[in-house]
Design brief:
Blueprint (H helix, E strand, L loop, with lengths): L2 E2 L18 E4 L5 H11 L3 E6 L13 E3 L2 E3 L8 E2 H7 L3 E4 L5 H12 L3 E4 L5 H5 L3 H7 L4 E6 L14 H8 L19 H24 L4 E5 H16 L4
Parallel strand pairs: 2-3, 2-8, 3-7, 8-9, 9-10
Antiparallel strand pairs: 1-7, 4-5, 4-6
Length: 244
């Protein structure tokens, strides 16, 4: 059964949301993908978050938590949920599917047939193993817009490297222009690289929806966390003169 999460308020003035009628399947975890689908939910899309029943999104149990007894860094009750998870699942629906089991895979394909957009940020190779890669799902629904967010792309020499916000900030030089100029490189306070990737993904999905409306053609959208982050601050690195 698909459960409802906290709804997002409708547009001021009672106007219909701009993405009303658009169904998004969110197979992503952590921050970048959920950030993109949060924006889409905020514009009125029906977003269905699909979690692994063996644990779901890791931010579900990551501090700080919010629960019946307020905010804390320790999980004091079974009802306490990670604040990062709560922030990025509002306005979404939720379902748990074990995609490694035939029945879970078949249920996903049923959802795919009625979906407009799929967003995933699995490690490279996982979607092919689970038989939910672009080519497989395009055969099920040719109108599906398929958005993949990876750290270093799906085909290059770095494709199998793990990418987290911290490592991407280091690899792009963002840390070299953050903090005390006389001190060591520093991480930004917020998870900026993941946030940038999610924002670029959202913009790409909106463009793909418009193109599909105009031409009937659906797109595969690959987004690289490292390139989106580099593009956001490359001029500042040049201005700084060097990357340490």
């Amino acid at each position: 059964m698909i459960s409802e999460k906290t709804p997002i308020a409708s547009d001021a003035g009672g106007k219909p949301p701009i993405l009303r009628g658009v169904r998004v399947l969110d197979l992503s975890r952590f921050l970048s993908g959920p950030q993109a689908t949060l924006f889409l939910a905020g514009m009125g899309a029906e977003v269905i978050k699909i979690d692994d029943p063996r644990g779901g999104d890791p931010t579900f149990t990551a501090p700080p938590f919010f629960g019946p007894r307020g905010v804390a860094f320790d999980r004091r009750t079974s009802e306490d949920l990670g604040i990062a998870y709560l922030k990025r699942t509002r306005g979404k629906k939720s379902i748990s599917l074990d995609l490694k089991k035939p029945e879970g895979h078949e249920l996903l394909l049923k959802l795919i047939r009625e979906a407009d957009v799929l967003v995933e940020n699995f490690k490279v190779g996982v979607t092919a193993r689970l038989k939910i890669d672009y080519d497989t799902l395009r055969a099920v629904n040719p109108k599906l817009i398929y958005c993949s967010i990876t750290g270093y792309g799906a085909t290059g020499p770095e494709r199998h490297r793990k990418a987290f916000d911290l490592t991407v900030q280091a690899a792009t030089g963002m840390m070299s222009i953050t903090g005390d100029p006389a001190g060591q490189p520093s991480k930004t306070g917020a998870s900026l690289s993941d946030g940038i990737a999610g924002t670029f993904a959202m913009a790409g999905i909106l463009g793909a929806l418009y193109q599909r409306h105009e031409t009937g053609l659906a797109l595969q959208l690959p987004f690289l966390t490292i390139s989106e982050s580099m593009g956001n601050h490359d001029s500042k690195i040049v201005d700084a003169g060097s990357v340490d």
